[in-house]
């Protein structure tokens, strides 16, 4: 009951400027009633009244017109507060300076008082609304300047990027050799996917869907250990278990040459213009100039075990090699007629604790190299070749078999074996996880990126090749890239 009484007092305070029915009589009303009463008691100014003169004259001397109105509805209204309302107001003012009592004043009471006095809770009021949905305009409000100043900004068709958790296509890869140290998949600039299935090499046309058997080994006991396309996509290098490196013309489907020199299987290959570099199980790295008869240029020696990873940088200045000895080495580029730095490595890093097969150069930062370790290591490490330092490191909790940079969104894609057998997309350079693609039932062996950078192909021990289409450019961004590329071609032609 005390609460209701307090609310009635508050309501009374809010209505101070309204006419008050229980207030004392106004001064002019008292004077009017006094004059009327006196006139009724002593008509004609009888001498029965007290002879003491009145202190307040009924009329102003020197004037015939009354200055005080004699009836309700005069020229102004002076409100009068009763004593009860003033007491409540004084109480509230005095309580503001006193410390809050947790026992008597609760959060609910404060909120109720704020809503009663202000019409809303002050704590929840917003002076500037900077986020979220815009506030709705009052009902019936119309902005006359809306047509004049409003404009439609071009928006992308795809507001948010969608990465499907299921592959866009699944291809069968029977008799695929489930060997972690081999490189059995590569995608050419002409949109041909080369896959090595034991002793055969198949080409899959991503545009038309046609499948072609390019070659097969002469002996049944031999198998394909690595494949690699040239930059133009018209020649394919194939490494075999019988220590040979073959060069094939895919248009005529003919073998151009077979290059020997290794003493063990060739598990890794990489192109740099006319120079083909091959890595062997013996730990040796050979440079081949495919233009000349005497193809062997130089041998690089740094690894004590099988070289399972080889990658030339996009600008051709550096060669990265990874081996089963847990080493990552960086070599200088091959200059015309000689080998830079006398065949000595620029850097050799031993931070990995497992075999290093996964290597990838950053397309937009040619001096940045990413490497991934095997089951005993499971780390992705980012290296700066210029300074020779490790920029960052990430424990993926899974064996890393392959790495590739997706330039469309500046991301790093990793393929994993034991124990997750999945594909993970990382934002670069923060290495925060963007998406995880699961579907393979065995370890992922190799990754390859499509020429337009929109699709990643994965081959795994479950004898399947899966295509993940999660890197398509936004239509607006794609149009901008085309304009930039066209302008660069124009500038080159002018020069």
Write out key terms for the chains shown:
16% helix, Methylamine Dehydrogenase, Chain H, 6 helices, four-stranded antiparallel beta sheet, 495 residues, elongated, alpha+beta, disordered C terminus
Distance between the termini: 93 Å
How big a fraction of the residues is strand?
Answer: 25-35%
CATH superfamily of the domain at 169-489: YVTN repeat-like/Quinoprotein amine dehydrogenase
Main sheet properties:
4 strands, antiparallel
Number of helices: 6
Number of DSSP-assigned strands: 30
Mean pLDDT: 81
Can you tell me the residue ranges where pLDDT is under 50 for at least 5 consecutive residues?
Answer: 39-57, 147-158, 488-495
Q: Briefly, what CATH class of the domain at 169-489?
A: Mainly Beta
User: Which secondary-structure class do the elements indicate?
Assistant: alpha+beta
CATH topology of the domain at 169-489: Methylamine Dehydrogenase, Chain H
Query: What would you report as the Rg, rounded to the nearest angstrom?
Result: 45 Å
CATH architecture of the domain at 169-489: 7 Propeller
Helix content bin? 10-25%
Per the principal axes of the C-alpha atoms, what is the gross shape? Answer: elongated
Q: Numbering strands along the chain, what is their spatial order in the largest sheet? A: 1-30-29-28
């Amino acid at each position: 009951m005390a609460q209701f009484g307090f609310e009635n007092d508050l309501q009374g305070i809010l209505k101070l400027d309204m006419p008050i029915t229980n207030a004392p009589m106004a001064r002019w009303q008292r004077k009017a009633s006094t004059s009327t009463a006196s006139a009724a008691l002593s008509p004609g100014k009888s001498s029965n009244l007290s002879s003491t003169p009145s202190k307040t004259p009924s009329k102003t001397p020197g004037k015939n017109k009354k200055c005080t109105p004699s009836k309700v509805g005069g020229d102004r209204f002076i409100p009068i507060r009763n004593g009860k309302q003033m007491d409540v107001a004084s109480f509230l003012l005095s309580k503001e300076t006193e410390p809050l009592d947790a026992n008597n004043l609760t959060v609910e009471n404060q909120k109720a008082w704020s809503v009663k006095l202000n019409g809303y809770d002050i704590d929840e009021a917003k002076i500037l609304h900077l986020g979220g949905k815009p506030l709705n305009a009052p009902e019936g409000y119309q902005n006359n300047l809306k047509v004049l100043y409003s404009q439609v900004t071009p928006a992308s068709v795809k507001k948010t990027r969608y990465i499907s958790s299921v592959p866009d296509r699944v291809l069968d890869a029977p008799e695929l050799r489930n060997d972690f140290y081999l490189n059995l998949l590569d995608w050419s600039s002409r949109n041909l996917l080369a896959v090595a299935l034991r002793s055969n090499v198949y080409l899959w046309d991503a545009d038309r869907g046609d499948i072609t058997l390019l070659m097969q080994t002469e002996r049944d006991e031999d198998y394909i250990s690595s494949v690699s396309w040239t930059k133009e996509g018209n020649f394919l290098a194939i490494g075999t278990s019988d220590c040979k490196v073959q060069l094939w013309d895919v248009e005529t489907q003919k073998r151009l040459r077979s290059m020997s020199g290794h003493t063990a299987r060739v598990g890794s290959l990489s192109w740099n213009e006319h120079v083909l570099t091959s890595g062997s199980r013996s730990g040796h790295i050979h440079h081949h100039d495919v233009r000349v008869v005497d193809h062997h240029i130089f041998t690089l020696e740094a690894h004590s075990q099988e070289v399972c990873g080889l990658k030339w940088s996009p600008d051709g200045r550096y060669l990265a090699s990874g081996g089963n000895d847990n080493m990552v080495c960086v070599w200088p580029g091959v200059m015309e007629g000689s080998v830079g730095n006398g065949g000595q490595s620029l850097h050799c890093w031993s931070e990995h604790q497992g075999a290093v097969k996964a290597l990838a150069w950053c397309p937009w930062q040619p001096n940045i190299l990413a490497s991934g370790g095997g089951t005993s290591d499971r780390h992705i490490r980012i290296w700066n070749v210029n300074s020779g330092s490790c920029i960052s490191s990430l424990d993926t909790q899974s064996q890393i078999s392959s790495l590739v940079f997706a330039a469309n969104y500046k991301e790093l894609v990793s393929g994993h074996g034991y124990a997750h057998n999945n594909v993970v997309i990382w934002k670069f350079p923060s290495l925060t996880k963007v998406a995880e693609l699961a579907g393979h039932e065995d370890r992922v062996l190799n990754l390859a990126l499509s020429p337009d950078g929109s699709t990643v192909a994965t081959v795994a021990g479950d004898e399947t090749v899966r295509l993940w289409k999660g890197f398509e450019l936004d239509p607006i961004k794609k149009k901008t890239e085309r304009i930039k590329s066209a302008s660069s071609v124009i500038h080159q032609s002018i020069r």
